[in-house]
Design brief:
Length: 444
């Protein structure tokens, strides 16, 4: 493994400069124009021919060893989160990489650079697909709904969008190393539905004639309380998480709020659990609208699938980490995370692993998050990824082929999976009031 580590170390300056540049230019999902262009330029300088995503950010390139074998996809995420309280957030947008994706991108570039070194591909077979993918952080739902309505995207998350466009066709195995505080992995993570919620009331003069109004803000706050009141009905093994926010609470203080907008997820560790909990949440939200006499529009869109880290891929990650970064002390945590990622969508149709490299400090998505050790977060991650590729594709791809043969996908094909998540989409007003004072409610 020493020659692999040396191939990464040769590009140390470029890798670390990339991490700093992307940290200083944070951009949220489907807006990563500076980040995507910068990374694409670095790849092009290394001699790669890139396939760019149409109308959105991101790209991929394919390395063919010239010997038959499996195809492995390695990803790096372009987008940031929003945390205006972070001391280094963008003053205009509040964006900041307190998610560690800047280190991911630097590590992906380091991997790309190392793969260009003489002799690195000599013992490998098959193909390697490197992808800079947009929009992993599932935020700004209203903005992404707008992109959907314009026909620019079909899916909220970048990996699903790339999957649906055929950018991952031919891939057999995928992995991506996230940045965290230690070298570790869990068994997987929860999936989610995204929700846009619009309470629709009637405006009136807040002082002169409030009785003529129907207060959408009061309906929304009742909805929040109703959701809180059902939390104890969620079974603990399902790892349900619901966390709504109000994004627009009224237009002026002197008018009864006519429209209030909210966003939320419903997370869970299986599609069955997510859909069951989502129906309960919709019932609570609609009940609040009924209590005030408003209507409510709920737009339910599939977010991310639950992540399943393949056990054979966990073993692979551990073997690679122990061999090339033994100082990392790789740990397998025997639990499922309550966080979501669109790597879960890929895990529905192929073997994947989504482990963590150390190097960060602070709270993920918080105001105290930093890359404190770029050696671990960037160079260590790149070395680890290169070692994983080496173990998968040496010996005519024997280990990759065993992993592929042992894997039992949740869905038989990309098409079957996308068809299933498309069926989750629901939208429209949920209450029909008639003249007799009766109301019909649609919860599904």
């Amino acid at each position: 493994m020493k020659h692999l580590a040396a191939a990464v170390e040769k590009h140390r300056t470029q890798i670390l400069e990339t991490e700093r540049f992307i940290w200083k230019h944070p951009e949220t999902g489907y807006k990563e124009t500076v980040t995507s262009a910068y990374l694409a330029e670095q790849f092009t300088r290394l001699g790669y021919e890139l396939n760019y995503a149409d109308d959105i950010t991101g790209f991929y390139t394919v390395i063919d060893t010239g010997r038959p074998g499996p195809e492995i996809l390695v990803l790096g995420e372009l987008d940031s989160v929003i945390c205006p309280g972070h001391p280094e957030s963008d003053p205009a947008t509040g964006a900041v990489h307190s998610c560690g994706h800047n280190a991911q991108c630097a590590a992906l570039l380091g991997l790309a650079a190392a793969l260009k070194e003489p002799g690195i591909l000599d013992d490998l077979c098959g193909r390697i697909r490197l992808c800079a993918v947009p929009a992993e952080e599932l935020l700004e739902i209203e903005y992404r709904n707008g992109l959907k309505n314009e026909g620019k995207i079909k899916y909220m998350g970048g990996k699903n969008e790339f999957l649906s466009r055929g950018y991952f066709d031919g891939v057999d195995i995928a992995f991506m190393i996230h940045t965290s505080t230690s070298f570790s992995t869990t068994l997987g993570g929860v999936g989610c539905i995204t929700k846009s919620i619009i309470y629709k009331g009637t405006a009136a003069h807040a002082g002169g004639a409030p009785w003529n109004g129907r207060n959408a803000l009061y309906a929304a706050t009742c909805g929040l309380n109703a959701v809180n009141a059902i939390r104890e009905t969620f079974a603990e093994p399902d790892i349900i998480r619901v966390h709504p926010i109000i994004t627009s609470g009224g237009q002026m203080v002197n008018a009864i709020p006519e429209t209030v907008k909210m966003e939320s997820y419903v997370r869970g560790n299986s599609f069955e659990a997510i859909l069951k909990a989502n129906k309960k949440v919709n019932q609570a939200l609609c009940g609040a609208a009924l209590s005030i006499g408003t209507n409510i529009e709920i737009i339910d869109i599939p977010g991310y699938a639950p992540l399943y880290n393949d056990p054979n891929m966990i073993d692979l990650a551990k073997d690679a980490a122990d061999a090339i970064i033994p100082e990392g002390e790789f740990t397998v945590r025997q639990r499922y995370s309550s966080g979501s990622t669109d790597m879960g969508d890929l895990s529905c149709i192929m073997p994947v692993i989504h482990p963590y490299a150390g190097g960060a400090v602070g709270t993920g998505h918080g105001a105290d998050y930093y890359i404190a050790d770029p050696e671990a977060a960037c160079l260590g991650s790149a070395k680890w990824q290169l070692a994983m590729l080496y173990l998968l594709l040496k010996d005519n791809g024997a280990r990759a082929n065993r992993i592929i043969a042992d894997y039992k996908p949740a869905f038989p094909s990309k098409e079957a999976y996308l068809s299933y998540i498309d069926s989750i989409n629901r939208s429209g007003d949920r209450i029909i009031y008639d003249e007799d004072g009766l109301a019909q409610v649609k919860l599904g």
